[in-house]
Design brief:
Bound molecules: adenosine-5'-triphosphate, magnesium ion
Mean pLDDT of chain A: 85
Number of domains of chain A: 2
Low-confidence stretches of chain A: none
Number of strands of chain A: 10
Number of helices of chain B: 19
Oligomer: heterodimer
Strand order of the largest sheet of chain A: 6-7-8-3-9-10
Order of helices and strands of chain B: HHHHHHHHHHEEEHEEHEHHHHEHEEEHH
Radius of gyration of chain A: 35 Å
CATH architecture of the largest domain in chain A: Up-down Bundle
CATH class of the largest domain in chain B: Mainly Alpha
CATH topology of the largest domain in chain B: ABC transporter transmembrane region fold
Helix content of chain A: 55-70%
Radius of gyration of chain B: 37 Å
Shape of chain A: elongated
Strand content of chain A: 5-15%
Helix content of chain B: 55-70%
Distance between the termini of chain A: 61 Å
Mean pLDDT of chain B: 83
Strand content of chain B: 5-15%
CATH superfamily of the largest domain in chain B: ABC transporter type 1, transmembrane domain
Chain lengths: 595, 607
Amino acid sequence: MSEHESPDSKRKKALAAVARHLKNYKRGLTLGGLCLVVTNLLMLANPWILKVTIDGLQAGTTSRELLNYAIAFVGITVASGVFRFLMRRIMIGISRKIELDMRGEYFAHLESLSPSFYNQHRTGDLMALATNDLNAVRSLVGPGVMYSLNTVVVSAMTLSLMIVLSWRLTVVALLPMAILAVGMYHSMKLIHKYFEKVQERFGGLNSRAQENLSGVRVVRAYAREDYETAEFEKHSRIYVDANMKLYRIQSLLSPLLTSVAGLGGLFILAYGGKQVIDQAITLGTLVAFIGYMTMLVWPMIALGWVMNIMERGLASMGRINAILHTKPEIKDDVRSDAGGIPVTDCSLSFENVSFSYDASQDRAPVLCDISFSVRDGETVAIVGPTGSGKTSLVSLILRLYRPQTGTILVGGVPIEEISLSDLRTVVGLIPQDIFLFSQSIAENVAFGVPRLEESELDRLSRVAAIYGEVQNFPHKYQTVIGERGINLSGGQKQRIAIARALAKKPGILILDDALSSVDTDTEERILRSLRDEMKQRTSILISHRISTVREADRILVLNEGKLVEAGTHQELIASRGLYADMYDKQQIMYSLERS
Amino acid sequence: MEYFDEDEVQGRPYDRTLMRRILGYLRPYRGMVVLSIVLLLLVSVLQLAPPYLTKIAIDQYLSPASSLDIDARYFGLLKIIGIFVLVLLLAFVISYCQIYVMAFVGQRIMFDLRMQIFRHLQKKEVSYFDRNPVGRLMTRLTSDVEVLNETFTSGVVAIFLDLFTLLGIMIVLCYLNLRLAIITFTVLPFLFVAAMIFRARVHRTYRSVRKRVAAINAFLQENITGMSVVQIFNRETAQYEKFSHRNKKLYQAHLDTVVAYAVFYPAIEILSAIAIALIIWFGGRGVLAGAMTFGALVAFIQYAQRFYRPISDLSEKYNILQAAMASSERIFDLLDNEPRIQDSRNPKKIPTIPAEVIFDHVSFSYNPGEEVLHDVSFRVAPGEKVAIVGYTGAGKTTIINLLSRFYDVEQGRILIDGVDIRDFSQRDLHRYIATVLQDVFLFSGDIGHNIHLGDRAISDAKMMEVSRYINADKFINKLPLRYQETVGERGRTLSVGERQLLSFARALVYEPKILVLDEATSSVDTDTEYLVQDALKKFMSGRTSIVIAHRLSTIRFVDRIIVLHKGGIIEEGTHQELLEHGGHYSKLYDLQYKDQEKEIQFRRDAG
Ligand SMILES: Nc1ncnc2c1ncn2[C@@H]1O[C@H](COP(=O)(O)OP(=O)(O)OP(=O)(O)O)[C@@H](O)[C@H]1O
Ligand SMILES: Nc1ncnc2c1ncn2[C@@H]1O[C@H](COP(=O)(O)OP(=O)(O)OP(=O)(O)O)[C@@H](O)[C@H]1O
Ligand SMILES: [Mg+2]
Ligand SMILES: [Mg+2]
C-alpha cells in the first residue's frame, strides 16, 4: 500500500476515482439534477399560494376560489412529489449502480493479485473494504451528491431573492460564513483523518473475527475462549475509541452550522435593526429578510451533513484505491490470443533459478541456482527435508511467484512468454494445502473445466479412489461440502483435490505431498491408477515417503534450497548421499518393527 | 440439498418485542439517555428563542410605532443582541454535548452487543460452525451491529422530542379550533396506513439486503482465502461471474429499498398537503361565513404546517428503525440459538493425573441416519500409548472430535476416570487433553504466539525447549526475528511441514494429561519425524497418548493398536499380536513395507 503518499495527493486521487465513476452516469445524473431543480422550484410555489389565499381571504373571496387554491396546493405538491420520486429513484439508484460497479471492479482486481499480496493482507481487512468502506463511498455518490446539489440549488434560489431585496444585508448575513469556512476546512481534514482510522480499526476488528471463527477448533481444543474474548474486546475497544475521537469533531458540525445560521440572523438583526432605526431601510424589508434567512437554516445544516459524508467517502475511497492501485506482481505479459506461445510439448526445465520470498531481506534464498530438466512424459520426484523449498519450486512453475534470477521453460518456451491461462491450463497442481470450495463434490471436481460428463466424473473418482465413499454419501456427487471441506476427512479432501486436478487433463501434473493423509492401501491404489495417467504426461511427485517416489524415472533431492542430488532410486542409494540416508532411516524404522 | 443452514430468521419476532429488546440495551446508560433527553429539550427551547427575540426587537425597538427615543432604541437593540449571542452560545454548547453523549451511548451499546455476540459464539457447538460460513457470522458480528448505531445516535432520543412536539401541536390545534383540528386529523389514518404498507415493504427488502450482504461476505471470505486455487485453475472469470450474480442480487434488493423510499417521502408530503388544503377549504369557508376569525385561521395554518414537520422527521427515524430491525432480528436469532453442547450445572472436577479413557458403546453420526461410528468400545489405561489406524474416512478423526466434545455422542458414553465427559466443564476437559488437529490452523500472529496461544503461564524458555526437542527451532532460528517473526494468515508464509511442527509444539507446551495426535507428522521429513518421536518419548512418559497415523513408522512406539474400519473396531492388540493375527493391520503393514521386504531379500540374496 502506498502509505507514504501525502494525504493531499491521496485525497485528490480519491476525488478523481469518484469523479470517474460519476462520469459514467453523466446523463442520468443530469436528469436527476433537473428533477431536483424542478422539485425545488415547485416547492417555492406553495408558500406563495398560501400567501395569496390569506391575502384573498382578507380582501374577501369566493368559496370557488378557495377550492381552486386548495386544489392548486395539492396539485403542486403532487407534481413536486413526482419529481421528487424521480430524483431519488434516479440519483440514489445510480449510487447503487456505482456501488455494484465498484464492488465488481474490486473483486476483479483481487483476482489479479498474486499470493504475495495475500501474504501481507488479512482477509478481514480486504472484506471490510468491500463492505464498510464501499458503503461510505456509496453514501458519497448517492445522498452526498444529491443533497449537496439540493443545498446548492436551495441556497442559490434563496440568496438571489435576498440579493434582490438588499445586497448589503446579504453580505452582512453571510459574514459568519467566512468564520465557518475556516472552521469547516480544519474539521473536514480531521474528519478525514479520523474516519480513515476508524475504518482501519474496523478492518482489524473484522480480521480478528475472521480468524477466531475460522480457527474455532483450535480455540476450543486449547480452551482459549477467554483469551480470544479479551483480544476481541481489546480490538472492539480501540475501535470504539477511534469512533469517539471522530465523534468529538463530527458532533460539532450540526451545532456549528445551526449557530452560524443563527449568527447570520443576529447580524441581520443588529445591522438591519440599526438601519431601521436610522430609517435607512423599512421594517418590512427587514422582516422579509429575516424570513429568508430562516429558509437558509435547513440548507446550512444539510451542508454540514453533506461535508461529513463527503470526507468519509473520500477517506474510504482512498483506502480502496490503495488496493486498486496495487499492481499485480504477476501479469499476463502476453495475451493468449495475441502472441502467447501455445504449449505443444510438456517438457519442463529450470535454468539457474534462484528465488526468495522477500528479496529485500537478508535471509538465505529459498531456492538457490536450481537447474534441471524434465522430458515430456517423464516422471520426476522431488524429495527433501521440511522447508527445503519443494513447494516453492513448484509454485514457480505456475507463476504464483516470480524467481529473482533464472528462467523456467515449459515446452522450451520461457513461461513469461506463455499466457497465464495457457500455462495454468497445461500445469495441474494438487497443492499440499488443500482448499475446497463450499459447493457440491461434482462442482469441486469440475472446478477447472467448463463441464464434466458424468462418466468422466466416475472415471476420475475411481482414479482418485474416492468413488466408493462418494457413492455411499446420501447425495453422492451432489453432496455439498462445508467451507474448506470441513465435513470431509483429511484423506477425502486430498482425493477430491486429486480428481479436481486430473479433470483438467493437464500436460504437466504436480502432486505436492498429495497422498500424505491417505492410508497405504489407498495410496497404493491411487499410485497404481495414477501411473497409467502419468504415462501420458509429465509429472512431478513430491513426497516424504520413499515408497511413493522410488519408482519415479528420476529423483531430485533438495536441501536448504539447493539441488543436491539427482538420479534414479538405485543410483541415489549407491551414491550414499542424503537420499540414501533418508532411505536408511526409513529402513531402520522398518527393521525395528520387525524385531 | 443445501449443506449450510439457510440464512433465514427462524421465528418471526414481533416488531414491538424486537424494539423493546433493542431499547433494553439502553438500560445501563439510562442516566445518559435521560441527560440527553433533557439537553435536547433545552436545545429545542433555546431554538425557539431567536424568533421570539426578533419579535420583541421589532415590536419594541424597531417598529416605527415605538415611543422610545433613539438612544433607548439603540440600547434596547443592543440588549436583545446580547441575549441573542448568549442563546446561540448556549444552544451550541448544549447541542454539542447532547450529540456527543448520544454518540457515546450508541458506541457503548454496539460494543456491548458485539461482545455479547462474540461471547455467545465462543460457546456455540462446533457443528454450528460447520453449518454457517465464516463470512456470514462475521457479518453478524461487525456490520449488522454497525447498522444499529444510527438508531441510537440519531434515532431513539430524537423520537421522544418529535412525539412531544407532535402532541403539543395537536393540543394547540384542538384548542384553536376543535372542528378544524378534527378535519386536519382525518388525514392521520391514511398516514398510518401508508406507513404500514411502507413498513411491510421495506422490512422485506431490508431483510433481503442483510441476507445478501451476508452472502457476499461469505463468498468474499471463501474466495479471498482460496484465491490461489482460483488462479491455479484459471477460474477468475467463472468466479467473477458468480460474484457478479451475488452482487447484482444485492443491488436489486437495494433498488427495491430505493423505490420504496422514493415513494414514501412524497406520499407523506402529499398527505400533509391534503390536510392543509382541507384547512384552506373548510377554514376559509368558515372565515367567509364569519364562523371563524381571520387571525385564527392564519395561526391554524401556521401550526398545521409545523404539525407535519415532526411527522416527516418521524418517518425518517422510522426508516432508520426498520433497517435496525432487519439487522437486530438476525442478531437476536443468533443469540437466541442456545449452544447445543453445554456444561453440566455442577461440573465434576477433572482428575489431576492421567486417568483411564473409556469409549463405551459409542455411536455417532454427523447427519441423522448416516452413522459414522458404530458401537465403538475401547479402553486406554492411564499412561498408555494407543494408536488408531485405519482406512481414510474410517472415522479416526471423529473419535477425537468426540473425545474433545466438539460433538456429543449419540449413544454410549465416553468416560475419563470413570466419569462421563459431559459431566466435566468443557474448559477443564480441553485443558486436560491437548490435540494436534489434522487440519493445522495457525493465527496470523508471531511464531511464539502460535505456540503459546497467548497463555502467559507458558514461559519463553519452555517454548524454546520444546521447539528444540522437536527440531522446530531449526527453521525458527533461521528467521530474522525468530519467535517474533509474524506468519501470514493460517501460517501461509511457512511450509506445511513447518506449520505442523508449530502446532505440535503448541500441544507439548501445554503439558496435557492426555496428548492426542491426529496425523501430526504426516508432512514432515523422516529426520524430523525421528526427532519428534524421541521428543515424545521424553515428554510423554507417564502421560496418556492417542496417536492416529497412516505411516506405521509413526506409531512404532505405542503400546497398543486399534484398527478402525468403516466406523467400527475390527482389531485390537500389540503390533506383534496384530501381525500374527494376519488381519487388516498386517495387510496394511505388508503393503507399506513390501518394498523394503523385497529390498532386504534382494540384498540378502546378493550379499
Ligand atoms: N509465502 C512465504 N513467504 C515467506 N517465506 C515462505 C513462504 N512460503 C514458504 N516460505 C519459506 O520458504 C521455505 C521453503 O518453503 P516450502 O514450502 O517450499 O518448503 P517445502 O520443501 O515444501 O516443505 P514441506 O516439506 O514442509 O512442505 C521455508 O523455510 C518457508 O518458511
Ligand atoms: N463435520 C462433519 N460433518 C459431516 N460429516 C463428516 C464431518 N467430519 C467427517 N465427516 C464424515 O465422517 C466420516 C469419517 O471422517 P473422519 O474424519 O473421522 O475420517 P478419518 O478416519 O479421520 O479419515 P482420514 O484418515 O482421511 O483423516 C467421513 O466419511 C467424513 O466424510
Ligand atoms: Mg511443501
Ligand atoms: Mg482424519
